[in-house]
Design brief:
Largest sheet: 6 strands, antiparallel
Radius of gyration: 23 Å
Helix content: 10-25%
Number of strands: 6
Structural class: alpha+beta
Oligomer: single chain
């Protein structure tokens, strides 16, 4: 779940101003405002690709994981949310919408197309390297001493 920017506040509003805007639920189209940019691209591999973006969305950070030891108020990390829908996948598999997030804001249509087209190439490269390292046995543990090879039994 992401958050939209804080809406403009009436001049005479009382109380502390909100830090986060309304919820943007990926699975709930009713929570989506009007998109910022929509691009349509014809591809040979995926058919028609429609990339829809919303600008200045941010996750609501919590003090867990990487932010556990953060001192002070947690930052608001705004970016561009991209929803990519394609006609088909290679192998005639049924595609599901793909959600991507980029830390850049105010993106133009050309940037949005470049971002989503870079994702499948990166995905292919990472999985190719993973396949080769597993096939060549580079993922198996290397034991450097005989004591490390001993198994520890009960007792």
């Amino acid at each position: 779940m992401f958050r939209l920017p804080v809406p403009t506040r009436p001049a005479k509003a009382d109380g502390r101003p909100p830090r986060h805007g309304p919820k943007f639920r990926l699975a709930d189209p009713a929570s989506w405002p009007e998109p910022t940019v929509t691009t349509r691209t014809d591809t040979t591999r995926y058919g028609h690709a429609v990339a829809t973006t919303w600008d200045r969305l941010h996750p609501r950070l919590t003090r867990r994981g990487a932010w556990e030891g953060h001192v002070g108020e947690l930052p608001i990390l705004e970016g561009t949310m991209i929803r990519l829908v394609v006609d088909h996948l290679p192998g005639e598999r049924n595609p599901k919408p793909l959600w991507l997030w980029c830390s850049t804001t105010d993106a133009a249509a050309a940037q949005v197309d470049r971002w989503w087209q870079a994702f499948p190439r990166r995905f292919d490269l990472e999985h190719t390297f993973r396949l080769f390292t597993q096939t060549l046995g580079w993922t198996t543990p290397r034991l450097h001493s005989p004591t490390a090879a001993r198994t520890v039994g009960p007792g």
